[in-house]
Design goal:
Layout lengths: L9 H4 L3 E5 L8 H11 L5 E5 L5 E2 L2 E2 L13 E4 L3 H14 L3 E4 L9 H16 L3 E3 L5 E4 L6 E4 L7 E8 L5 H10 L4 E6 L8 H8 L7 E6 L5 H12 L4 E5 L13 H5 L4 H10 L2 E3 L2 H13 L8 E5 L2 H13 L9 H7 L13 E2 L6 H12 L6 E6 L7 H14 L6 E3 L7 H8 L4 E2 L2 H19 L12 H14 L3 E2 L1 H10 L8 E3 L2 H11 L3 E5 L7 H4 L2 E5 L2 H18 L8 E5 L5 E10 L3 E8 L3 H4 L3 E5 L4 H10 L4 H4 L9 H17 L3 E11 L7 E2 L2 E5 L4
Parallel strand pairs: 1-2, 1-5, 5-6, 6-7, 10-11, 10-12, 12-13, 13-14, 15-16, 15-17, 17-18, 18-19
Antiparallel strand pairs: 3-4, 8-9, 8-11, 20-30, 21-24, 22-23, 22-24, 25-26, 25-28, 26-27, 28-29, 28-30
Helix pairs in contact: 3-4, 6-7, 7-9, 10-16, 11-16, 12-13, 13-14, 14-15, 17-18, 19-21, 23-25
């Protein structure tokens, strides 16, 4: 099979000639509509209808087979019954066709029989060294004036622009094109990738990465084919071109319920969120939010910061915008004294000048012009939101014209909100036509700006490095092999702690006791106070079971707790194994955290960090990232913790050793990278202390894969 190169997609998106195989004169048929669109959109190349039953279609000479076409053919658009697709692909291969768009449905999406047809189709495409969009797709578009390609059956002809849009859903194709046209957003290329049996979203990202005709990429995805390849490509593309995605559906962490704390916390979309965050992709929840964000990014540069000015003629909407922005982490600084002096002559004397700036209801174009021109020149702001609610005395078109004028001269982006008007009102249309992102509600702007600012911070941050540590891989390999040979998948106790020690993770001292007398002897040797835990892999979560007793201060407490724990274990789990416990010193200082890993079937290992102990599932103050982690990833996981104040010093407590905490997360990430046998693990609690105090992993549990 030939190596697939991005430039091969030129035969699909920039062909010099196209054969429509399955073209027909019957109106309403897909084969007719595709041909009609190619002609109507004025494709800059040759078009060859192919249908053995017709000599002429749409006033163009038709051919019985693509092999009968006298000229070379770059692209074939296939709209024939499923059973004939494989034969047509072979003919295209013989003809030397390089690109295919297979609109025909009835493949993998319909069940086992369709899967077999798709497998045969892919084998033939690979055999002939072709590239293919589809099957089961809506088609493709390239609006570039030098190409003018519309190989869809849409009734919408999109405007030329700088947006690349890929959709996994063909059914959404028409709606996407209609919405883009309604919002006056120009597309460069559109691709409905269908079953993505050959060309995937990853291929299109790679193809569009260096294309000067595309400055913004929008995606509607239902699943990932190769998330790890997506990670590498998307991270590179997002550094230079914003990517906004709607991801529908869910991913799970396996058919069986996860047995670890970490697995239980990894909800349906945790992996997707983690992947997008690490690659800089802006994930939105709806198609509406997708277009809200696209409108801003297509018309305005990314703001240089998170400081926003609101200028409005209505107090209520100003407050709504303020609340929404503040709740999303955006900042609303005050105006500079110079700005206040510039605004004062244009508003009533008693009107306070603050952010948000309420120009009062009667404000019209003059007041908006003065306030906006002053605000855009104020170094305290990175973006401006004019909010206008039309009073009966003011023509919205006049205010819209002012916003456009200010936008054209402004050094910072503007995002307009016109409330109480329709999408098709004159003023609103004027904003859209002249490059101003326009919204009906202020909350939409707030969500959009917060999403873009998060992207800005990701884009401008350090890329991070994958560190390497001096570790004892042989010791870990020996433990894994021992458990695999014995058929035991759960590693706990001293073996689990030895795995951590082998990778340089500090662990608490531990010893075992098989009788109450031995427990008292070990406790006296370790030094009170101590922690006593039941030693059995059959209890997954010891604290919840009551199998952990902390702060035991003398032999009498050891004896009393031993009796209760043994009785509880024997009655509730009915184990015939010898009862034993682990004795550890009580670590008095530090913050309990948890570090874990679970394996997603599509995305691979996910590393988790958060507050530990009993709080990990109660508070769920955790974050996930897809392995492997860079030092920047690990730092972000710590910074994202809502309980971070406990780590940095709270109410007089000492700050913990954040550098050691970050290093520990990275060492465990390296462990997961080195040994794919690990399916899950919990290091909980990992007590992180101030730099001059004892930091230690107190307990750990690993789950290994017993077969390849």
């Amino acid at each position: 099979m030939q190596k697939k190169k991005p430039e091969q997609l030129d035969f699909i998106f920039r062909p010099r000639s196209i054969a429509v195989i399955g073209a027909t004169p019957r109106k309403g048929a897909i084969g007719r509509e595709v041909l009609h669109n190619l002609i109507t959109y004025e494709f800059n190349g040759k078009i060859f209808p192919v249908n053995p039953s017709h000599r002429v279609i749409h006033s163009i000479k038709a051919y019985s087979s693509v092999l009968d076409v006298p000229d070379s053919v770059d692209l074939a658009v296939i709209v024939v019954p499923r059973e004939k697709v494989a034969e047509v692909v072979d003919e295209c291969g013989e003809k030397g066709v390089k690109g295919l768009v297979v609109i025909t449905a009835g493949f993998r999406e319909v069940g086992p029989k369709g899967v077999a047809f798709e497998k045969q189709l892919v084998e033939k495409v690979d055999y002939w060294g072709m590239r293919m969009i589809g099957p089961n797709c809506f088609g493709i578009i390239n609006t570039n004036p030098d190409v003018r390609l519309d190989a869809t059956f849409s009734k919408i002809y999109p405007h030329y622009g700088k947006i690349g849009f890929l959709s996994q859903s063909g059914a959404l194709g028409e709606a996407i094109l209609a919405q883009a046209t309604e919002m006056n957003l120009g597309l460069s290329m559109f691709a409905s990738i269908g079953n993505k049996a050959n060309i995937t979203s990853n291929d299109l990202l790679e193809y569009w990465k260096d294309d000067p005709e595309i400055e913004l990429i929008l995606m509607y995805l239902e699943n990932f084919g190769n998330p790890r390849r997506f990670t590498a490509i998307a991270r590179e593309v997002a550094k230079v071109k914003p990517i906004v995605a709607v991801k529908s559906g869910t991913t799970t962490v396996g058919a069986a319920a996860a047995s670890s704390h970490t697995g239980a916390l990894a909800g349906a979309e945790v992996a997707v969120d983690a992947l997008f965050e690490q690659t800089g992709v802006m994930r939105v929840g709806t198609i509406e939010e997708l277009f809200d964000t696209a409108s801003a990014l297509a018309r305005m540069p990314v703001p240089k910061g998170d400081r926003v000015s609101i200028v409005t003629n209505a107090g209520g909407p100003g407050v709504l915008a303020t609340d929404a922005l503040a709740n999303l982490g955006m900042k609303l600084p005050d105006y500079s004294e110079e700005t206040k002096k510039a605004i004062r002559p244009h508003i009533p004397p008693d009107t306070p000048i603050s952010n948000p700036l309420d120009l009062v209801a009667g404000a019209g174009p003059k007041q908006f012009r003065a306030a906006l021109e002053a605000a855009v020149s104020d170094d305290n702001f990175d973006s401006i939101i004019p909010i206008f609610v039309p009073p009966i005395t003011v023509d919205p078109m006049d205010v819209a014209s002012v916003i456009v004028d200010v936008k054209d001269k402004s050094p910072i982006p503007l995002y307009a909100c016109f409330m109480g008007v329709s999408w098709y009102s004159e003023g609103f249309e004027h904003l859209k036509e002249h490059g101003v992102p326009a919204y009906i509600f202020p909350e939409s702007i707030a969500r959009t700006l917060a999403k873009i600012d998060k992207y800005r911070k990701w884009r401008d941050r350090e890329d991070g490095k994958l560190p390497s540590f001096d570790v004892d891989r042989e010791a870990v390999r020996s433990i894994i092999d021992e458990y695999v040979r014995s058929g035991e998948e759960v590693i706990v106790g001293d073996k689990a702690l030895r795995i951590l020690e082998a990778y340089g993770v500090p662990v608490a001292h531990y010893c075992y006791a098989h009788s109450v007398d031995e427990a008292m002897e070990e406790a006296n040797r370790v030094g009170f106070p101590v922690v006593m835990k039941v030693n059995t892999p059959r209890i997954l979560h010891k604290t919840e079971f009551g199998a952990v007793k902390v702060d035991l201060r003398d032999s009498a407490e050891i004896a009393a707790e031993w009796q209760q724990m043994e009785q509880k274990v024997r009655s509730e789990i009915q184990s015939d194994e010898d009862f034993s416990v682990v004795i550890q010193p009580m670590i008095k200082e530090g913050v309990e955290t948890a570090i874990g890993m679970t394996t997603d079937p599509a995305f691979g290992p996910l590393i988790m960090f958060g507050l530990g102990g009993v709080y990990v599932e109660l508070m769920k103050d955790v974050s996930f990232k897809v392995n492997p982690l860079t030092d920047t990833d690990a730092r972000e996981m710590i910074e994202r913790c809502k309980g971070r104040k406990l780590l940095t010093g709270f109410r007089g407590s000492e700050p913990v050793d954040l550098d050691l905490l970050q290093e520990t997360i990275l060492r465990l990430s390296m462990l997961v990278t080195d040994f794919h046998e690990f399916l899950e693990f919990d290091v909980n609690p990992f007590i992180i202390a101030p730099p001059d105090k004892q930091t230690a992993a107190v307990d750990a549990r690993f789950v290994v894969k017993l077969s390849a």
